[in-house]
Amino acid sequence: MSLSKSGWVVVEGWFEIPLHYPEVVLHEFVVMPNHIHGIIEIVDSVGANKHSPNFHEGARANIDSHLRHPAEFKSPTKTIGSIVRGYKIGVTKWHRANTDVYDVWQRSYHDHVIRDERSHLKISNYIMNNPNSWEDDMFFKN
After folding, report:
1. For 15, phi and psi rounded to 5 degrees?
2. What DSSP element (H or E) covers 42?
């Protein structure tokens, strides 16, 4: 498959993700004519096992203060959602500035948590072999 300039912007944006999100390791990735596939590993996660957020003395007062005086919305930064959102925003900004394409992406995305090596291998193989099945795709046009 030969990529257009837009396709190369999609690829370059993908490989820039770790520059913006150092907790990310990128794995398999492929650009298809109408979608992409990629595996993103978050290596410095937060959550129940990492005991974050870490509440301290006076945290209740801060929470109460925010409830009385809500700050502007702040999105979590170490989530797959924030990573995908940032990637899509960057690619969209380039397209809007350099082409007549305004809507680059579908509204959402499909994600799947890879829980073991067997699943990782299966999904990796699917990604790497996906271009071979493009002619069978319902959106393929001769």
Report:
1. -75, -10
2. strand 36-42
Q: Is the CB of residue 41 less than 8 Å from the CB of residue 22?
A: no
Q: Which domains are present in the chain?
A: 5-136 (3.30.70)
Distance CA 107, CA 124 (A): 24
Q: Which parts of the chain register pLDDT below 50?
A: 51-60
* pLDDT score recorded for residue 94: 96
Q: Which residues contact 91 (CB under 8 A, 6 or more apart)?
A: 9, 10, 13, 104, 105
- State residue 46's pLDDT score: 53
The confidence score (pLDDT) of residue 78 equals 78
**H or E segment to which residue 128 belongs:** helix 117-129
- pLDDT given for residue 136 in this prediction: 75
**What length does the chain have?**
142
